[in-house]
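lol forgot to send this yesterday, sorry. C-alpha cells for the thing we talked abt
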C-alpha cells in the first residue's frame, strides 16, 4: 500500500513540475530568447510552442486530478474539510488550481483558436500564462503549507 501512495505522490509532483515548470520556462527562458530569431518567425514559433504546451498542460491536469483526490483524502476525511486547518488550506489550494484550469480552458478553446489564423501579438495569452504561473507558485506555497499543518 505504501508503494502505491509513493507512486501516486510522485506522479502528482511530476505533473505539477510539467505544468508550472513549463510555464516558467516559457516566460523566463523561451520568450526572452525569441529576440534571437527573425521577427516574422516569432508568431510561428509562439503558436507552435503554445499548441504543444497546451497538450502537456492538459495531460498534467488529468494526472493532477486523478492523483490529487486520493492524496487529499489520505490526510483528511471529507466531513472534516471545512473544520480543520489542513482542510481549509487544501480547499484554498484546489480553488486556486480550479482558476488555473479555467484559464487553460480559456486559452485552449477560445484564445488559441481565435488567434492561430491571424498570428497577432498574443498579449492576452501572455498575460494569462503569467497569471497562471503566479497562481501556480501560490499553489506550491499552499502545498508547502499543507506539509506543516
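and heres what i got for the seq, position by position
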Amino acid at each position: 500500500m505504501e508503494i502505491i501512495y509513493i507512486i501516486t505522490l510522485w506522479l502528482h509532483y511530476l505533473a505539477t513540475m510539467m505544468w508550472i515548470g513549463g510555464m516558467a520556462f516559457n516566460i523566463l527562458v523561451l520568450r526572452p530568447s525569441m529576440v534571437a530569431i527573425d521577427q516574422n518567425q516569432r508568431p510561428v514559433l509562439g503558436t507552435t510552442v503554445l499548441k504543444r504546451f497546451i497538450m502537456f498542460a492538459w495531460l498534467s491536469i488529468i494526472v493532477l486530478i486523478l492523483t490529487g483526490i486520493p492524496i487529499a483524502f489520505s490526510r483528511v476525511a471529507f466531513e472534516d474539510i471545512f473544520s480543520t486547518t489542513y482542510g481549509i488550506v487544501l480547499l484554498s489550494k484546489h480553488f486556486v488550481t480550479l482558476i488555473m484550469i479555467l484559464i487553460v480552458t480559456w486559452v485552449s478553446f477560445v484564445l488559441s483558436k481565435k488567434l492561430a489564423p491571424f498570428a497577432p501579438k498574443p498579449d492576452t495569452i501572455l498575460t494569462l500564462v503569467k497569471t497562471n504561473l503566479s497562481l501556480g507558485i501560490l499553489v506550491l506555497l499552499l502545498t508547502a503549507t499543507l506539509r506543516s499543518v
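Residues 27 and 130 are 7 Å apart (CA to CA). anyway ping me if u want another try
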